[in-house]
Amino acid sequence: MSFPEHRPRRLRRTPAVRRLARETHLVPSQLVLPMFVREGITEPSPIGSMPGIVQHSMDSLRRAVAEAAEQRIGGVMLFGVPEVRDAVGSGADDPNGILNRATEAVVAEVGDAVVVQTDLCLDEFTDHGHCGVLRADGAVDNDATLERYTAMGLAQARAGSAMLGLSGMMDGQVGAVREALDAEGFTDTLVLAYSAKYAGAFYGPFREAVDSQLKGDRRSYQLDPGNGREGVREALLDVEEGADIVMVKPALPYLDVLADVKASVDVPVWAYQVSGEYAMVEAAAAHGWIDRRGAIMESLLGIRRAGADAILTYWALEAARWLREEL
Ligand code: PBG
């Protein structure tokens, strides 16, 4: 009998060798925690489809962001849930709107200790739930929406947001917001472009989290799940328009897109592990069907391996604690 010429298993023999041979690492500063703040509540309110995640009150949000800063995760991404909505999403650029007030409060609490980021999209603020304003025929009006986004972006920058997360998938949104920021002197405000954001089923629990009013779907602006090259094209356009960071979303079903985008751009590439990805693991773990911690850490590492420089994940704080334990 002949012996194997190659023995890759040598690199797997002991925990110490495996640790030394590991190609991909995850550290707390690569994790960003998405957070919800709801207008008009005084106690945090649980989200049924996202066990462990809440809609925060202003107070509980402030405390939670302070904890995120203590844990030294990379950042927090804030989403607002307003009490009142209208056709154009007026609450979005109102300095007294819930998201802008919350941003101000949080920045006053933590300053630059953690990167405070804000979702820049109209869907939480419109009474029809779409990410833009609508034409008379009911279709989303791309260019009229850009004017709303620039107003929203300026309001967020004035409130102290360090990074604007443009998640609306309107054409030209990055260029329009960048230009408006620069014209008002906000040249330091970062733009995170949700470049390759796919339409699909994985945002379901998020819609509960923000009390979404959406009927129908977002297929006329978010990408078709079958299209990988189009995701790369969107990322390239966003870089050209001035995006500081581009993102792929959801994460696990789109790792190929993530890898392709990573190979195509020279800015950081992030991924968003979305609500549906969170809910799947939590539900399976609650049944005892999957090892919760193992599945969470494996999914985060896989997203890193595919090319994400940082990851938006609802497990950011817990994962950061585990990562420190493992050191
Ligand atoms: C739009 C936005 C959405 C998410 C983040 N930003 C919802 C959507 O596109 O329908 C989803 C995040 C998640 O599912 O965790 N403001």
Output the keywords.
327 residues; alpha/beta; TIM Barrel; 11 helices
Task: Output the CATH homologous superfamily.
Answer: Aldolase class I
- Quaternary class: single chain
Strand content: 15-25%
The molecules bound to the chains, other than polymers, are: ligand PBG
Low-confidence residue ranges:
none
Overall pLDDT metric = 97
Break the fold down into its secondary structure elements and pairings.
Elements: H1 15-21, E1 31-38, E2 45-46, E3 54-56, H2 58-70, E4 75-81, H3 98-110, E5 115-120, H4 142-159, E6 163-166, H5 173-183, E7 190-197, H6 204-209, H7 229-240, E8 245-249, H8 255-264, E9 269-272, H9 275-286, H10 292-306, E10 310-312, H11 316-326
Parallel strand pairs: 1-3, 1-4, 1-10, 4-5, 5-6, 6-7, 7-8, 8-9, 9-10
Antiparallel strand pairs: 2-3
Helix pairs in contact: 2-3, 4-5, 7-8
The chain binds ligand PBG.
How would you sum up this structure, described in words?
There is one protein chain. With 327 residues, the chain is α/β, with parallel strands linked by helices. It has a single domain (27-325), classed as Aldolase class I (TIM Barrel, Alpha-Beta Barrel), CATH 3.20.20. The protein has 11 helices and 10 strands. It has helices at residues 15-21, 58-70, 98-110, 142-159, 173-183, 204-209, 229-240, 255-264, 275-286, 292-306, 316-326, and strands at residues 31-38, 45-46, 54-56, 75-81, 115-120, 163-166, 190-197, 245-249, 269-272, 310-312. Strands 1-4-5-6-7-8-9-10 form an 8-stranded parallel barrel, surrounded by 8 helices. The longest helix has 18 residues, at 142-159. The chain is globular and about 80 Å long. The mean pLDDT is 97. It binds ligand PBG. The site of ligand PBG has 9 residues, from loops.
